[in-house]
Amino acid sequence: MTTLRPSRRSVLGLLGAVPLATGGLLAVPASAHAGAESDHRGSDPVPADLRPGGALDQLIAQSAATDRYSGTLLLLHNGRPVLSRTYGMADKEQSIPNRPDTIFALGSITKIFTGIAIGQLVQQGKVAYHEKLSAYLTGFPAAIGETVTVHQLLTHTSGLADVARDSGDVLRSWTSEAEVTRELLKLVQAAPLLFPPGTGYTYSNDGYITLAYIVAAVSGQSFYDYVRKHIFRPAGMISSDFYNRDQWDTNRRIAHPYAPPPSGGARVDNHLLDTYIGHGASGAFSTTPDLTAFVTALTGGKLLDTAYTWLATTPKFPAPPLPPKPGLPAQSLFECYGLSAVLVNDHWGLGHKGGTTMGISTALEWYPANGYVYVNLCNYEAGSTTPIDTQARLLITGAGEHRPHPRH
User: Fold this and answer.
1) Residue predicted with more confidence, 329 or 4
2) Which pTM was predicted?
3) Angle at CA of residue 61, ends 58 and 65, nearest 5°
4) At what angle do helices 55-65 and 386-396 cross, to 10 degrees?
């Protein structure tokens, strides 16, 4: 366990560290996707390495050609498409290729929607970030319910364990939304704390599962229905949903996840081995156009008022430093409320990476200061997008200019 105890002054400083992007800074229509690729040369020109034929494009093609990448990528600058690339198969058995509108499982990007849902309820006065868990849910031991706060659940400082990750066989055995809803919270409630709330940091899926139950308890709707009605619909996310395992099996637009089995060997289709339906930490599905629409809605004040958007999207807690890599600039990571903020080359990027060994490797990031939105959705194993995402991040922030793209 990593224990972090920042000073009160440093935490308060972080609360105001990032300027809010509002007023149409990223004015992307819901249907925006790159069939056309822009050579936009406005006051903030796009580097050649981010354009078609540049270093990023070459790396994507190289990764796909060597079967290390399968998915769809979209990069926008000031609301205009810069680069759109799609490779690989959504369903190898039926020979269905990935397309720009293919629907992908998002993994932990789902946590962004959970954080925004909580922010909406805070704005309505129905939830408070400082409030204890017991104010909204019963059934937790007093050592948890009477001490863990909503803020701690959002920032991975609650001490809750990760039974969702460690109980895969149990989760996969459930066969209905009702069973998932009824049984999942019981698993979380039965797990002991890893450390006293607020005294350490451990990335916790259970914290976001618990937050989803708070959303349901306070709103009177299922978590799934709440997100559909209050986030997906107002953002214009027409293809996004919490699809269940049966829909994953039959919907030809949804990409199947491919990853090597634990014993090694060739990739296999894992969609029938996943949980029946997702939860507050993972399990939403979306497309690259829908995720750019989400960023536009969030930064444009459609999901939260300006003050509450700022509150949800600014750094709240410094996560352990990212491991340094030779030749790369330092990157500082901070937890916000549902998303993360990374500081690279004096540029703030907001968003989240998501991935599991089941065949999900995804990334969503946007850069308020220079107007970029980056989405990469892949249906190969965790880490498949990492070299591409790293290259994109460095080029977007100017840290990777004139650097040759990695050779593999």
Assistant:
1) 329
2) 0.87
3) 135
4) 180
- Per-residue b or e along 169-201, where b marks 16 or more CB atoms closer than 10 Å to that residue's CB: eebeebeeeeebbeebbebbbebebbbebbebb
Q: CA–CA separation, 289 vs 284, rounded Å? A: 15
In this predicted structure, the answer to whether residue 35 has a pLDDT above a threshold of 60 is: no
Structure token pair of residue 244: 């269940």
Q: Where are the alpha helices (DSSP H) in 191-287?
A: 205-219, 223-227, 233-235, 245-250
CA 152 to chain centre: 18
CA–CA gap between residue 312 and residue 294 (Å, rounded): 14
Residue that the structure tokens 């998501």 belong to: 354
Give residue-wise pLDDT tens across range 110-122.
Answer: 999 999 999 999 9
Angle between helices 205-219 and 177-190 (to 10 degrees): 120
Tens-place pLDDT, residues 377-398: 999 999 999 999 999 999 999 9
Task: Tell the residue number behind the tokens 């960023």, with chain if given.
Answer: 295
pLDDT: is 294 or 173 the higher one?
Answer: 294
Residue type, 282: S
The whole-number pLDDT of residue 171 equals 78
- Higher pLDDT, residue 9 or 368: 368
Q: Which two tokens stand for residue 78?
A: 């000031």
Give the span between the Cα atoms of 401 and 385, in whole angstroms.
20
Whether 233 contacts 135, CB under 8 Å: no
Could you give the CA distance from residue 198 to residue 176 in angstroms, rounded to a whole number?
35
Task: List the structure tokens of 362.
Answer: 């995804």
**Strand ranges (E), 175-287:** 258-259, 268-269, 285-286
Q: CB 28: neighbour CB atoms within 10 A?
A: 27
